[in-house]
Structures are given as structure tokens and as C-alpha cells.
Design goal:
Helix content is 67%, strand content 3%. With 553 residues, the protein is mainly alpha-helical. Helix 3 crosses helix 12.
Length: 553
């Protein structure tokens, strides 16, 4: 409206006059407005058509010469490049860990054949000659000697029990099944092997502790004899299960079209689908790595059993060994390829560096070095069993059964060869142990974990007076700090005398309740460290429980 009269402005603005009223035979103002709008839009379209910015040639030229600058997002592309380098480093770092872990399993496996019989003989000799020396100690035998005797007796009993299992009948029974049935059976055997391994080590540990537990304590178990029969039953059933696995693999090797072997090898690639697209932390990846080491070593022993059975059937003809060689290489190559692909994508999807495998190797080396100390609380073979889920007793029983049935020893010369072979095994075991111990010390030094070996007792908090340290003792744990400033806590075996009171391990929550009021400032400083420790647990503590052969917290 106008400021003076309040009349509406014209369509052309306030400076132009209003259009005259429509006379007879003339268009109305509304019709004039529509006609004017039509011409205005027509002039706009003509003007837009004449713009050179939207020409086809201009568009094509812009698409061909358009540029961009990657340095504007430098962090993103640097991260992508590091991921590629990490994937390229995974095969090398993974195979270093696998190589070290397989020799650890080999050392524990050779222990059953070489040093365990000698230790059993020494323990029995001590038991027999004990009246000649008198009872200087309360114990008739040391706990380690009791465990050695139990292992030897279980090994001998299960070996004679395996004579009642007919391998030939089992082979023909499995061979008569269809390919699909055998494929399902092989998958079921793999799952059953992991489940029975997880429960088997607990059975053996329960037997060892029940047999060596101090008698002064209140009895809280069912007795040594029931535990012993449970252990014998477990080793026997596990040996039969591994025999069925080896027989199924032998049938796949001897099939004419090799279709069963191909299907069984393709089953390894199904494992990639089940593990790659899951979230993994460093501890979970350590469990998987240990499981892969155990699985690869077990497959090598199964391949050895298959080759022995096939060579026996062909009268030890060396030409037949070259017939089996391509299939053996295919099985080994598929295992290595699947492990590399699986670990490469797991580390890629979870942003885990390749240096983590060096930490895993140092953790396994720490187990070996700590088992050589005087205050060690377990034998190294049992430590490997708890860490990787690899139990050598059932596999050793099966291998002894197959070797004794495949190779006939007759004559004095044959027995001399057996003695020489046994001496060679002992030499191999000693050489392997020496090399592993030297490499383990090197890995422990590189990881700066020596403090955990030499600080088995309480570690006081630095910077506090002696009077205040009594209320803030954490536990019987060695605490060390790595290069990044992150703390790690490792339980150490502490040899406690019978007259010493047992030290209670306090949790993190108890530390806040028992700290005096004057140390509130120390609590606030240590709270962040405690949270960090709970979030990042030490790899050396991943051996308390078992799921499918893997150690988890």
C-alpha cells in the first residue's frame, strides 16, 4: 500500500502508474498479468539457452580437466597405505609365529617319547630304593615325579587298550560311506576334537593336583583313583577320535577321483567366512593364533600317520611316496593359505598392526623361560597344553600304536636300530630345547620382559614410604611398563613354604576400600592406570579357561 492513501502498489513497482480500468472489449488486469508473465518466462528461457556455461562441450571439457588434491586428506590416505603395508607384512610375521609355535609343540611332543620314560625310570628307582636312604622328607616322591609316573602309567594302559581297536575294520567301514557323509563326519570330528581337548586338560590337571595336594588340607575331592580312571578314559577316547580323523584323511588320499580330498580342503576356506567378519581384540587374535598353531601341528602328525599306513600297504615302496607327495603338499599349502588370508583380513578390519605377532611370540617365549626357573609351578609340556590346547598324550598313544603295527622289529640288528633311533630322538629333543631356550631368551629381552622373571614377589609402589606400602600391596604380581607407557600385570609362581600364610590377592575394588584417607591423591593418580590395565589385559594371563581349545579370559 502507498504510505499516504493506503492504496496497493502496481505490479511494476511503486514508481509506475496503475493500469487503467478495463473498458468494454478490452482484457482485464488479471488477463494482462498472465500474458505478461508468459512473455517474461519465454524471454528467460531464451536467455538460459544462450548461456555458454551449460554447453555440452564445456561440460565434457570440465570433466576431462577437473582436478583434486589428495594432500587435503593426508591422514586418510596415509592410513590406507599403512593398511596395505600391514597386509604385506602379515605372511612373514605370521609364519615366524607359526614356525616358533610348531617347534614348541614338537618339543612338548618329543618330551613324551624321550625324557618322560627316563624321568619315570628315575622316579621308580627312587621309590624302590627309598628304604635304603630313610625317610628324610615327608613325601615319598616329589610332586613332579608323581606326575611323571601318572603320565607314564596312563600312556602304557592306553597303548594296550588301543590294541583292541581294529584299524583295518575302521578303514573299510569309513570307506564304504558316501562322500557327503564323510564330509559331515570330518567336520564333526574337528569340532569334537576341540571340545574334548578343552575338557581333557582340566581332567589331567585335576588328577595331578589331587595326587600331589598336601595331605594336611581338608579333603575336597573324590579321590585319586576316580580321577585316574577318568584320565585314562579321556586319553583313550581322544586317541580313538584322532584315529578316526586320520582314517578319514587316509580314505580321502586313496579315493580315485580325489573329490573327497578336494571337499575337505575347501572346508578350510569356509573357516575364513566364520572368522574374518567378526570383531577381534588382541587377546582374541592371540587365542586364534594358538589354535592355528595347534591345528597345523596336529595335521602334520596326521599326515605322517597316513603316509605310514600307505607305505605299509605298498610294502614300503619308495615310489609310492612320490604318489602321495602332491596330495600332502596340497593339504599343507591350503592350511598356510587359509591362515594367511584369515589373519590378513582380521588385522585389516580390526586395525591391528603386524607387530602384534612379535608380542605373541614373546609371550610364548616367556612361558618357556619361566618354566626353567626353580620356582616354576608347572612343567613346560603342560604349559603348552594350557596355552594352545595341544595335549600330546592322546596323539603320542596313537602314533606309537601305528608305528608298532606298521613296522615289525625282528632280530638283533632291528633292536640295535631301534636303540639308535631312540638316541637320535633324544639328541633331537635336546638340540631343539637348547635352540628354543636361546631364542626365547632373545625374544624376552627384545620385549623387555625380564622384570617379570626376576620380580616374583610383591612389588611396592614407587615413591611411597615404607609405612604406607603395607596397605597398598597389590598382589603377588610383577608389574612392568613397556615403551608406550602401558602397564602389564603377570602372575608369577611363588614358592611358599608350609609355615608361611597364604597371601590373598586383592582386587582393584578392594584397593580403594583399604587405602587410608591421606592417600586420596594417589588413588586419583592410579585410577587411570587401573582402568587401562583392566581394558588391556596381559597376554600371559590368557590360559585360565578353555573354549574349543582356545584360552580366554
Amino acid at each position: 500500500q502507498d504510505s499516504g492513501r493506503g492504496e496497493p502498489k502496481t505490479l511494476w513497482g511503486s514508481s509506475e502508474p496503475r493500469p487503467p480500468a478495463a473498458g468494454p472489449g478490452q482484457p482485464s488486469p488479471q488477463q494482462r498479468t498472465e500474458t505478461l508473465g508468459f512473455y517474461e518466462s519465454d524471454r528467460g528461457r531464451k536467455k538460459k539457452r544462450s548461456l555458454p556455461d551449460l554447453s555440452l562441450l564445456r561440460f565434457i571439457s570440465a570433466e576431462l580437466t577437473r582436478g583434486y588434491f589428495l594432500e587435503h586428506n593426508e591422514a586418510k590416505y596415509t592410513e590406507r597405505r599403512e593398511r596395505v603395508y600391514t597386509c604385506m607384512r602379515i605372511p612373514k610375521e605370521l609364519e615366524k609365529l607359526m614356525f616358533f609355535g610348531i617347534f614348541l609343540c614338537l618339543d612338548a611332543f618329543l618330551y613324551v617319547f624321550t625324557l618322560l620314560p627316563l624321568r619315570v625310570f628315575l622316579a621308580m628307582f627312587r621309590f624302590i630304593t627309598l628304604p635304603c636312604y630313610g625317610l628324610r622328607d615327608r613325601r615319598l616322591l616329589q610332586p613332579a615325579q608323581v606326575c611323571d609316573i601318572l603320565k607314564g602309567v596312563i600312556l602304557v594302559i592306553c597303548y594296550f587298550m588301543m590294541h583292541y581297536v581294529d584299524y583295518s575294520m575302521m578303514y573299510h567301514l569309513i570307506r564304504g560311506q558316501s562322500v557327503i557323509k564323510l564330509y559331515i563326519i570330518y567336520n564333526m570330528l574337528e569340532v569334537a576334537d576341540r571340545l574334548i581337548s578343552s575338557f581333557g586338560q582340566d581332567i589331567l590337571d585335576a588328577l595331578y593336583w589331587t595326587a600331589t595336594e598336601p595331605k594336611e588340607r581338608k579333603r575336597a575331592h573324590i579321590g585319586v583313583i576316580p580321577h585316574f580312571f577318568m584320565a585314562v578314559l579321556y586319553v583313550f577316547l581322544h586317541a580313538i577320535l584322532i584315529m578316526v580323523q586320520a582314517t578319514t584323511l587316509n580314505v580321502a588320499f586313496n579315493s580315485h577321483n580325489k573329490s573327497l580330498l578336494t571337499i575337505m580342503m575347501s572346508n578350510n576356506f569356509v573357516e575364513i567366512k566364520g572368522s574374518v567378519f567378526k570383531k577381534f581384540e588382541k587377546n582374541n587374535l592371540f587365542q586364534m593364533s594358538n589354535s592355528d598353531i595347534k591345528e597345523r601341528f596336529t595335521n602334520y602328525v596326521l599326515l605322517l600317520i597316513v603316509c605310514l599306513r600307505n607305505m605299509e600297504q605298498f610294502s614300503w615302496n619308495p615310489d609310492h611316496l612320490w604318489v602321495l607327495f602332491p596330495d600332502v603338499c596340497m593339504v599343507v599349502a591350503s592350511e598356510i593359505a587359509v591362515d594367511i588370508v584369515k589373519h590378513a583380513f582380521i588385522t585389516k578390519f580390526n586395525d591391528i598392526t603386524a607387530d602384534v605377532y612379535s608380542e605373541y611370540r614373546a609371550s610364548l617365549a616367556f612361558d618357556l623361560v619361566s618354566s626353567r626357573q626353580k620356582n616354576a609351578y608347572t612343567d613346560y609340556s603342560d604349559s603348552v597344553s594350557r596355552r594352545m590346547g595341544f595335549i600330546p598324550l592322546p596323539l603320542a598313544v596313537l602314533l606309537i600304536r601305528v608305528v608298532t603295527s606298521s613296522i615289525k622289529v625282528q632280530g638283533v640288528l632291528a633292536y640295535v636300530c631301534v636303540v639308535l633311533f631312540y638316541c637320535g630322538l633324544i639328541s633331537l629333543k635336546v638340540l631343539n630345547s637348547i635352540v628354543l631356550l636361546g631364542k626365547s631368551c632373545q625374544y624376552v629381552k627384545e620385549a623387555k620382559m625380564e622384570e617379570k622373571l626376576f620380580n616374583p614377589v610383591l612389588t611396592a609402589t614407587p615413591g611411597k614410604p615404607a609405612g604406607k606400602q603395607q596397605g597398598t600391596f597389590k598382589s603377588t604380581q610383577g608389574i612392568s611398563t613397556d615403551e608406550n607407557g602401558s602397564t602389564s600385570v603377570t602372575n608369577q609362581p611363588v614358592h611358599q613354604k608350609e609355615n608361611m600364610p597364604s597371601l590373598l590377592v586383592t582386587s582393584n575394588s578392594d584397593q580403594f576400600l583399604t587405602t587410608p584417607d591421606g592417600e586420596e591423591k594417589d588413588i586419583s593418580q592410579d585410577s587411570s592406570e587401573l582402568k587401562h590395565r583392566s581394558a588391556k589385559k596381559d597376554l600371559l594371563e590368557i590360559d585360565r579357561f578353555t573354549i574349543c581349545g582356545n584360552r580366554i579370559d
